Amino acid sequence: MAVSFFGLAVFLFLTLDSEYTSTPVYAATSEGVEITYGSVLKLMHEKTRFRLHSHDVPYGSGSGQQSVTGFPNVDDANSYWIVRPMPETSAKQGDNIKSGSIIRLQHMKTRRWLHSHLHASPISGNLEVSCFGDDGNSDTGDYWRLEIEGKGKTWRQDQRIRLLHVDTSGYLHSHDKKYSRIAGGQQEVCGVREKRADNVWLAVEGVYLPVSESK
C-alpha cells in the first residue's frame, strides 16, 4: 500500500474530533483486532471487494441527499467511517460492540451519517442509502443493527457482518451495477430486505481504539 499504517494512524489522529486526543489510537495491522466505539475504519463489500464510500455529491434523484457508493480503490480518504453508538446510551468510546447492537456510522470527512429510507435507489430501485445530518443532527434513519456471522459475539476485524437498517428492515447491500456519469466506475450501494450472500461486509483498513478497561 502507498500509505503506511503508521502514516494512516498519524493522519487520522490529527483529523479526529477533540474527544479522541486523550486516547491513544493504533493502526489495525492484523486480523482479529477488536472493533470498538470510536474506531475509524473502512468496510469492504465481501463479494465485490469495493469499499463503502461517500463524498459531497448529492443524488440526482430520490432524496437528493449525499450519495453513498462502492469505491474500487483502497487508498481513498472518503471511505473512512467512525463507529458511533446510539445517542443517550451508556455505551462509550472504547467499548466493544456485541452482535445485535444498534450502531451509527459517521462519514469521517463530511461528518454526515450513513442513512436509509424508503426512497428508491438510483440504479436498481431498491432502498436508497445516503449520508444525512451532521454532528448535532441524527435520527433513527441512521440506526443499523450489527449482525455478526458465525459464532463470534463481539465485533472483530476478521468477522463477516451484516448491517440491518432499523427503520426499513433493509440490509446494507451492494452489487456490480455501476454508475456511468457523476460517480463513474463506482457501484451502487442500497438496502435490500432479503438476507443474501452479497450483503456481507468486512472491516478492513483503519485505526481502532483499544478496548476500555472496566472500572
Write structural notes for this entry.
With 215 residues, the protein is mainly beta. The protein contains one helix and 13 strands, in the order αβββββββββββββ. The protein has one helix at 5-15, and strands spanning 26-27, 40-45, 51-58, 66-71, 81-85, 102-107, 113-120, 127-132, 144-148, 161-165, 171-178, 187-192, 201-208. The strands form two sheets. Strands 1-13-2-5-6-9-10 form a seven-stranded antiparallel beta sheet. Strands 3, 4, 7, 8, 11 and 12 form a six-stranded antiparallel beta sheet that branches. β3 and β4 (66-71) form a beta hairpin. The chain is globular and about 50 Å long. Mean pLDDT is 87; it is low at 1-7 and 17-24.
Q: How is this fold's topology laid out?
A:
Layout: H1 5-15, E1 26-27, E2 40-45, E3 51-58, E4 66-71, E5 81-85, E6 102-107, E7 113-120, E8 127-132, E9 144-148, E10 161-165, E11 171-178, E12 187-192, E13 201-208
Compute the gyration radius: what is it? 16 Å
Low-confidence stretches: 1-7, 17-24
Q: What kind of oligomer do you see? A: single chain
- What series of H and E elements makes up the topology? HEEEEEEEEEEEEE
Class computed from helices, strands and strand pairing: mainly beta
Mean of all residue-level pLDDT scores: 87
Net shape: globular
Number of strands: 13
Task: Give the N-terminus to C-terminus distance in angstroms.
Answer: 39 Å
Q: Strand sequence of the main sheet, in spatial order?
A: 1-13-2-5-6-9-10
Strand content: 35-45%
**Helicity range of the residues?**
under 10%
Number of DSSP helical runs: 1
Largest sheet entry: 7 strands, antiparallel
